[in-house]
Amino acid sequence: MPVDKSGNGKRENWGSRFGFIMAAAGSAVGLGNIWRFPYMTGENGGGAFIVLYLVCVLVICLSVMIAEFAVGRRTSLAAVGAYKTIDNRWTFAGVLGVISAFFIMGFYPVVGGWAFAYIVKSFSGLLSSAVPIGDVFGAFISNPIQPIFWMIIFLAVNVIIVAKGISGGIEKAGKILMPTLFVLLILISIRSITLPGAGAGLEFLFKPKFDVVNGQTVLAALGQAFFSLSLGMGCMITYGSYLDKKEDLTKSALLVTMMDTGVAILAGVAIFPALFAFGMEPAVGPGLVFVVVPSIFAEMGGIGAVFSVLFFIALMVAALTSSVSLLEVVVAYLIDQKNMERKKAVIVTGAIMTFTSILSSLSMGLMSGVKLFGVGFFDFFDILTDKIFLAIGGMLLAIFVGWFMKKEDLKDELTNGGTIKFGLFEIWYNLIKYVIPVAIAIVAIMGIRSIEQTSLMLFGIGIIVVLAIFSKKL
Known about the structure:
Layout: H1 17-28, H2 31-43, H3 47-75, H4 79-86, H5 91-104, H6 108-123, H7 133-141, H8 146-163, H9 166-193, H10 199-206, H11 215-228, H12 235-240, H13 249-277, H14 292-299, H15 302-338, H16 342-362, H17 377-403, H18 407-414, H19 425-449, H20 454-469
Helix pairs in contact: 1-9, 1-13, 1-15, 2-11, 2-13, 2-15, 3-4, 3-11, 3-13, 3-17, 3-18, 3-19, 4-5, 5-15, 5-17, 5-20, 6-8, 6-15, 8-9, 8-15, 8-16, 9-13, 9-15, 10-13, 11-19, 14-15, 15-16, 16-17, 17-19, 17-20
């Protein structure tokens, strides 16, 4: 059994099944659910997009999550060690996951900091300001000091949670944060659907109009489903490595998937009825959360400030539960592969992430003229992970599990040595072996083709090639 340098002499484990489910669901739930899902839904026709999204989640993403849990628990190691133990030629796939998590944390704390700041701004006149809310947001993110201050606070909370370990930090935080998130979204949703004219928003969400569906809609749904569940970056392998052998992996994966999807749907219900009630455009893009949503709350009068606070607390919590797992991926690598003590690993990783996040924040204003392969630092980290690393990481996982792991080992892991049933094993195995690699490859190709900066695209692909060539030395 690998040793976890946490001071207790053995690898840490989750303290309870509930704690693990909350933490894993927290990893899956993030900005993709509350920020990206609503605006993607708005841009792709509403209900039809949601139906396609649910199909992709159940057929493809659930299968990939089961695979990640199986790989992690089978080896009791995080992403790099898990691949290396089974076949060291595949070490690069684990390293790609660590790099993905590290790069995402190069900009994710910045957005988490924005959410933190907007909690305070909601109390201090954001909704009653004579300055248009869009202009307020633009001025805020381009400020050289304020966003960095909030980003550091957000990242410091991550560091404190992860430094306390699995059961004492991440699990305890998940038990508090995930129920809090659901309660907040339910409260906001109730207010949203009780507004005059909210019915049009509910119809937009839940009455599919398939005449608006095209190939791009299907790809958008698959891409959103995949990225929403934190797949392809080693998070679920890492969390799975802390599981005991009695846990039912398939049921756990289903619960996590249902909770993640539930948060996304709740976010839609919280936003779109209010959007339609006040006559606003649903297809507004990425500015939906920080510009349009505050504008909606401003229309509600005095009570709007309360719901604005609740909404941005929910957004901050969602960002936090996900960023904690991303930080843990990198920390677990240093613990498993470099024999580093947990607290030291957290401090070192947190310090580097603070530096990269500062660069990302400044790229919105003071350093907007500084380009890396044609883009600012924020976009550099975002594009590489969103368009290249995550999809390719997920595709590599499916190929690895379907073609390089022994089928009998997978069945043994997913049935807990034959003590529980997994009646759909053959269907799952054929999906992960034949169907899912192709589906994710299509998403990866489309994502790579959409990158406008050729040099950035080649750089991202080059990183993966170099990792593959030197995989045994990593």
